[in-house]
């Protein structure tokens, strides 16, 4: 009798077992969070190159993230923005000197060279360079600008090689702008994905955008999961600006806003400061932000963390995944609270229940994820399943407790 009661108590206690690691809030699905190689392993190789994506995969990233823009001939290529002088050698090319121009992109004047003024054949003559001055510059000039198709080809080839499903996580960049010049991103994006067999809600693909209306349009074109990106609360999606809608990202973060997003999206991709805010301090009272690390500039390293918001819980309550961006190991980008240890940042976010992280350094993200939350392919029953069945099989309870 005592033994039966003890087992029953164990079973009841199991209902409060948190499914991904101890001392962690649950992810939405109960599975371990995913690691997304942000622009590839862009902490180590020039961003949005096949070399950066391949390294991210080899480091264990579950997804690779191409931002996409269009060429003049309507081919989607991987670049963070359509102005390419910051990430390619275009400014050194005398034959393209006359392409330099100034345009208004998302309401702001931008001077440089623009992908929509180059054919794919011309883009292929350029070479990528490292954007961030304090990162490794030794790969500059080595790599081509990949098309989205080439990124997909890589993901498929590496899936076979590694035995893991390598997902892709494309982001439409400047969709309102590209639509305005007759080079809409949505149709070619969906066409490329469908041609490659991606059109199911269960495929390892997420499509993301900072704009709202193009995600709502994409919802009519594809069954793939969509992710609404969030910038700072005071900022506005550019399609809202263009259409005169006064709402900000902050308005979309309310329970009403999140419920609206859940109508078309599977998840949200918030700037990580919407989950754990940070700000400068003025401890010496001189009216200026304190340069806490004394490097002469005010950066993320000079912004102590504040209390976490309720965003992860709010999004989960609306049934939305939360994939936060961007995690970077460089001292310049790391909050002082972490004392130079980027692992501490991942640990904090994983323990808050984030469902995924966009990381420039996927090796570190994967190491912490596996240590804190377990590997993603080792499925754990979802909390809702546990409740639906009312009880975990006792053998599973005992197995888990033994494993802890
Ligand atoms: O897409 C998530 C994150 O990449 C958004 O920021 O500017 O790096 O594309 P960004
Ligand atoms: Ca992105």
What does this structure look like?
The structure is a single chain. The protein starts with a helix and ends with a helix. Residues 1-20 and 379-404 have low confidence and may be disordered. Strands 7-2-1-13-12-11-10-9 form an 8-stranded parallel beta sheet. A 3-stranded mixed beta sheet has the order 4-3-8, covered by helices on one side. Helix content is 32%, strand content 13%. It is built from 15 helices and 13 strands. The chain is α/β, with parallel strands linked by helices. It has 2 domains: 1-19 and 383-404, no CATH class; 24-82 and 144-380, TIM Barrel (Alpha-Beta Barrel). α2 packs parallel to α4 (148-162) and α12 (342-352) crosses α13 (362-373). α2 links the parallel β1 (34-38) and β2. Calcium ion binds at residues 65, 67, 171.
Can you describe this structure in just a few lines?
The protein has helices at residues 2-14, 50-58, 120-123, 148-162, 175-180, 186-195, 213-221, 238-243, 249-252, 255-261, 311-317, 342-352, 362-373, 383-389, 394-403; strands at 34-38, 63-65, 67-70, 76-78, 101-105, 108-112, 167-168, 171-172, 207-209, 226-230, 267-270, 321-327, 356-359. It is of the alpha/beta class and 404 residues long. β9 (207-209), α7 (213-221) and β10 (226-230) form a beta-alpha-beta unit.
Portion in beta strands: 5-15%
Tally of distinct domains: 2
Q: Indicate the CATH architecture of the largest domain.
A: Alpha-Beta Barrel
Q: For the terminal residues, how far apart are their CA atoms?
A: 27 Å
Helical proportion, percent range: 25-40%
CATH C-level name of the largest domain: Alpha Beta
**Major sheet:** 8 strands, parallel
Number of distinct helices: 15
Point out poorly predicted stretches.
1-20, 379-404
The name of the CATH topology of the largest domain is TIM Barrel
Shape: globular
The CATH homologous superfamily of the largest domain is termed: Phosphatidylinositol (PI) phosphodiesterase
Order of helices and strands: HEHEEEEEHHEEHHEHEHHHEHEHEHHH
Query: How many E-type strands?
Result: 13
**Hetero groups bound?**
SN-glycerol-3-phosphate, calcium ion
Question: Strand order within the widest sheet?
Answer: 7-2-1-13-12-11-10-9
């Amino acid at each position: 009798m005592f033994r039966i009661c003890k087992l029953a108590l164990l079973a009841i206690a199991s209902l409060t077992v948190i499914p991904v690691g101890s001392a962690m809030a649950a992810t939405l699905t109960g599975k371990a969070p995913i690691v997304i190689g942000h622009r590839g392993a862009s902490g180590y190789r020039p961003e949005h190159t096949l070399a950066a994506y391949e390294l991210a995969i080899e480091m264990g990233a579950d997804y690779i993230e191409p931002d996409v823009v269009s060429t003049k001939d309507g081919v989607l290529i991987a670049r963070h923005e359509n102005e390419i002088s910051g990430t390619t050698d275009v400014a050194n090319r005398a034959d393209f000197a006359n392409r330099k121009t100034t345009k208004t992109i998302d309401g702001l004047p931008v001077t440089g060279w623009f992908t929509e003024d180059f054919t794919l054949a011309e883009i292929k003559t350029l070479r990528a360079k490292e954007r961030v001055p304090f990162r490794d510059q030794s790969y500059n000039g080595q790599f081509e600008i990949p098309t989205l198709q080439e990124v997909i080809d890589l993901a498929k080839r590496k899936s076979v090689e590694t035995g893991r499903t390598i997902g892709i996580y494309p982001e439409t960049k400047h969709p309102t702008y590209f639509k305005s010049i007759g080079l809409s991103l949505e149709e070619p994006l969906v066409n490329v994905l469908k041609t490659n067999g991606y059109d199911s809600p269960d495929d390892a693909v997420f499509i993301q955008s900072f704009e709202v209306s193009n995600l709502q349009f994409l919802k009519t074109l594809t069954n793939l999961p969509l992710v609404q990106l969030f910038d700072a609360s005071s900022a506005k999606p550019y399609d809202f600006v263009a259409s005169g809608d006064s709402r900000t990202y902050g308005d979309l973060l309310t329970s009403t806003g999140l419920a609206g997003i859940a109508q078309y999206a599977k998840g949200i991709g918030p700037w990580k400061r919407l989950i754990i805010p940070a700000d400068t301090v003025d401890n010496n009272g001189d009216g200026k932000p304190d340069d806490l690390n004394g490097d002469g500039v005010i950066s993320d390293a000079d912004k102590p963390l504040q209390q976490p918001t309720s965003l992860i819980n709010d999004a989960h309550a609306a049934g939305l995944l939360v994939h936060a961006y961007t995690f970077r190991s460089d001292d310049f980008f790391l909050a002082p609270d972490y004392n130079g240890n980027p692992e501490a940042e991942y640990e904090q976010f994983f323990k808050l229940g984030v469902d995924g992280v966009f990381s420039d350094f996927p090796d570190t993200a994967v190491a912490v994820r596996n240590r804190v939350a377990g590997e993603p392919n080792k499925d754990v029953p979802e909390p809702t399943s546990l409740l639906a069945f009312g009880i975990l099989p006792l053998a599973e309870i005992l197995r888990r407790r033994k494993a802890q």
